[in-house]
Amino acid sequence: MKYLDMLAKLGIGNAHPGGFTATLKQFEQYPLPIASRILEVGCGTGRTSCYLAAQGHDVIGIDIHPDMISKAKMRAEKENASIQFLVGDASSLPFPNESFDVILVESVSIFTDTDKAFSEYYRVLRTGGKLFDREMIQYKPMSTEIIQEITTFYHVEKLWDLSDWSALVNTIGFYHSQIDGPFLFPKSNEDLIEHPDHYQQMDVDSFLDHTIWEVIGKYNRIMDSYHQYIGFILFIGTK
Predict the structure, then answer these.
(1) Is the whole model's pTM more than 0.85, yes or no?
(2) Domain at 3-238: CATH architecture
(3) Per-residue model confidence as pLDDT tens digits over 149-183
């Protein structure tokens, strides 16, 4: 079982760098314009999208994983949120040019064709619109063996470091951009305690599926063993 499949089966809504705590801190530090038209790319089970809709924004969520979208729709129904959720790929967004005021991304770009994804973010943003993308990075150099273990687990092509992200940002065309961080990952249980997800929807057979527990065990071992090597950044770009 892949990492993303495990997240879908457990209905996890905070599986991005810094958890939901970082999401809320981001919105506090960088308030979004009132009644923005927002696209959340890689919306997962829709936790952030529903939060933004409750703040009065017009939100569309897109994710490549159909099970995630199904659970996002169920979450929106329970939270009485009016949101359009679609199955789709970050590297080929099904929207016209200049469709959104804000593109929000939380740990998605490294799981797809990152260069194409950033080009798509830029394309569907309106002039003057903003992209916010929080992504995992290689915090400091590590051995080839560690890199191989982490990239194999997450099924990503490589671990980007700060210079990789800076180089990409400079080629896309955002006229004003900044990178906050890098930051180290907090302990995951801190986020769960501070911001429990009352609308998490787990598949009924999850606790009996040993493959899920194998993936969780590998994840915990990687985060415990290599926490000093991996962190995250927040990229902010204006079109």
Answers:
(1) yes
(2) 3-Layer(aba) Sandwich (3.40)
(3) 999 999 999 999 988 988 888 788 888 889 998 99
Is residue 95 helix, strand or coil?
Answer: coil
Task: State the angle between helix axes of 114-124 and 162-172 in degrees (0 to 180), rounded to the nearest 10.
Answer: 40
Q: What are phi and psi of 196, to 5 degrees?
A: -65, 145
Three-state secondary-structure class, residue 62: strand
Nearest in space to 125 (alpha carbons), one of 106, 97, 94: 97
For residue 220, give the 3-state DSSP assignment. helix
Sign of the CA dihedral with 125 first, then 41, 237, and 122 last: negative
Q: Map out the domains of the chain as residue ranges.
A: 3-238
Contact at 8 Å (CB) between 238 and 130?
yes
Identify the helix (H) or strand (E) that includes residue 61.
Answer: strand 58-63
Give 186's Cβ-side CA count (13 Å radius): 16
**Looking at 116-216, which runs of residues are DSSP E strands?**
125-138, 176-184
Bridge partners of residue 87, in order along the sequence: 63
Q: Which residues pair with 238 in a beta bridge?
A: 130, 176
